[in-house]
Amino acid sequence: MSRKKLSKIRRADPFFERELARYEFPLPSREYVSQVLTDEGRPVEFNELAELLDITNTEREMFQRRLSAMEREGQLMRNRKGAYILPERASLTPGRIQGHPDGYGFLIPDDGSADIFLDQHQMGKVLHGDRALVRVTGIDRKGRPEGGIVEVTERVNTRIVGRVFVEHGVVVVAPENKRISQDILVPPQPKAKNKPQSGQVVMVEIIEQPSKFSQPIGKIIEVLGNYADPGMEIEIALRKHDLPFEFSRAALEENKELPDKVTKADLKGRVDLRDVALVTIDGETARDFDDAVYCEKKGRGWRLIVAIADVSHYVKPGMALDREAVERGNSVYFPRRVIPMLPEKLSNGICSLNPDVERMAMVCDMEISSTGKIGKYKFYPAVFKSHARLTYNLVWSWLSGEKEPETDVHRSVLPHVQNLYKLFAALHKARGQRGAIDFETTETQMLFNEQGKIENIVPVVRNDAHRIIEECMLAANVCASDFLAEHKQTCLYRIHAAPSEEKLANLRAFLGEFGLALGGGDDPRAKDYAILLEKVKLRPDFQLLQTVMLRSLRQAMYSPDNVGHFGLAYEHYTHFTSPIRRYPDLLVHRAIKAVLAGETYTPDRSWDDIGLQCSSTERRADEATRDVENWLKTFFMKERIGEEFDGTISGVTAFGIFVALDTVYIEGLVHVSELGADYFQFDNIKHQMLGERTGQRFRLGDRVRVKLVRADLESNRIDFVLAGSEKSYAGRRTVPKTAVKPVSQRPVAKAVTTWAPLAKAPAKSEKPAAKSVAKKADGKKSAKPAAKGVAKPAAKKSPAKKSVAPRSKSAAAKPVKKATPKKR
User: Fold this and answer.
1) What DSSP state is assigned to residue 725?
2) pTM of the complete model
3) How far is 297 from 423, CA to CA, in rounded Å?
4) For the segment 483-503, what is each residue's pLDDT rounded down to a tens digit?
5) Could you tell me which of 717, 736, 617 has the C-alpha nearest to residue 658?
6) Residue 139, strand partner residues
């Protein structure tokens, strides 16, 4: 910069102080640029705008970059003469494109206004995820605003994974992401290294984006293999969702330099807990142990120590490892494969709390009363040794009296484990009194054969050993958030806002049909939900009522703005217990250390940006794992076409009903055209399809018997018809009585099991999540996913034949808002 003193014009920027905190010589803020253009009320060329904002010659290049960034995000645009104008003054709406598998799409406006419908012709100019400026041209037949794309401001798709098809000598790649409906044309490349065969999965690089006159053009840069190869579903998901799965060279170099064991220099300033009988309690297949616990009696209450791996000691701000960690946001747990947030040397090595080796930890040391109320607590860095690596099943066998400890080590830690169990009872009782919502769900576990495909899907049996760890982690998380709030240290809270007014109104209308009411008036609390759940627990329609209540809740996320955690009934809550696999936890550790040192921790990026990033990567991981699990389930069902199953209606949409099967924990669609010879009307509030002529009703929670007719690997679609209805319904007044039963006839014993297909399968090497609040409400032991089974059943089936489903793009989309019990 050529001058150190900024003029009055520059200091008139309403966001000058904010920009000054970020840059030594700040440029005009984006808001100031927009304000000046608004005040001018006309198009302004670059030179004139630079003069209006007192931009020096040395600043012009940087100022041009800022304006270009504003253009990409739709905050500015240039007219045909190259002058800058405000999109809203030209009646243009900036936003992001969301494609639909059927070819049309929407612009999701940045300002949160109504989505703008884009027909197939308009969508031919863009790809899903691009940013654009759209002008509203009218209202479509459904009453939605309809528009046309004026300008594409940002192209986000550079590489796309898809399948190769050769049609009359022309090579095209059909994207695996069905929201991208355009095929990518691949011109002939005589000297190309990658020459895939038709049907193979490839990575294609876009060399020419779609336009009004042409489809996208690309070149194949990687051949992944055949569609049905073992593990191919994961390779596709990694690329489809842009999941980072390889560490950079710089990160690997830093990882190589890390020590293999604790050094004497590391012990400085740490509390020595090596003689305290801390233990880890995890699943049988767990490989990374990031928490250890200890409990002793203290007066009428207890002392609880929760020791968490001190990842922040090794991963410092500014390191390549730290940049990789924030980009990943979290570890991703696929069946039989983990994409870690940190390299294995950290996650399974020096930061894994293996038994009988020294490890460094951040400790939350708490005093808890006999009623389960947390009293005094303190945080400190420590060094300790895990005295035993225990498993949930082993601990429960001791507590239930089924077995006795067989080794001296186990006998020595048994009294502390028994103290943990007594503490759990007090904490669990306090949880109920606090009013935390406790939804009943069933998690599932996939069992695989030697070919890497599902051989069976079984429910995961949870016991009180799981819940012991869950309650201990919840207590530590609450203390961490309270500690940081008390010292006014900004951090990322795990927030779960109260339900929206619209969802509450719909829920109350639905409950009213059953003569039920949710307490709390216009501002219900978690306790009101808990009271109602307890009230309806023994009803035969319990699962229906629970599901509708669960779907009224919002999704939990990360934010520096503390609005509390609705589902857990906490005024403040954060994630402290898993820094190996969640970036927000690592930030919380750094913030606590800063407070202990009398300092303030400020990350390189704004807290808001990191919160949005971590919330986004969490959703990305969920979508990727769901894709993989759906593919595996579809492959599993291909060999069972023609079989009949009992199930429960788990979702109702305008295009049909989703049915969750009782025995195999898989979900599929009965299309509206298969419901009967009638016009069926979808009622979103009552969660039902109602036949106009017959009065036949299909409602969420109803029991049905269905027949599997299709399992399409390409679209991951599983299609059913009602049992006995594979022939035409023409002339029938109603569907067969055996096909559907009212919810009141449902067996109570299956209340939990039938919702299981919506549960995400437990993840490998992780602790099971808590049964408290479903994914939307956040869930679990802050919460490690449960282990994804790799055990083999006694009787093996013969390997399923590899097959490739015919190409099809007409698949109806599955509802996005599907509640899955998961993270807290």
Assistant:
1) -
2) 0.79
3) 9
4) 999 999 999 999 999 998 889
5) 717
6) 145
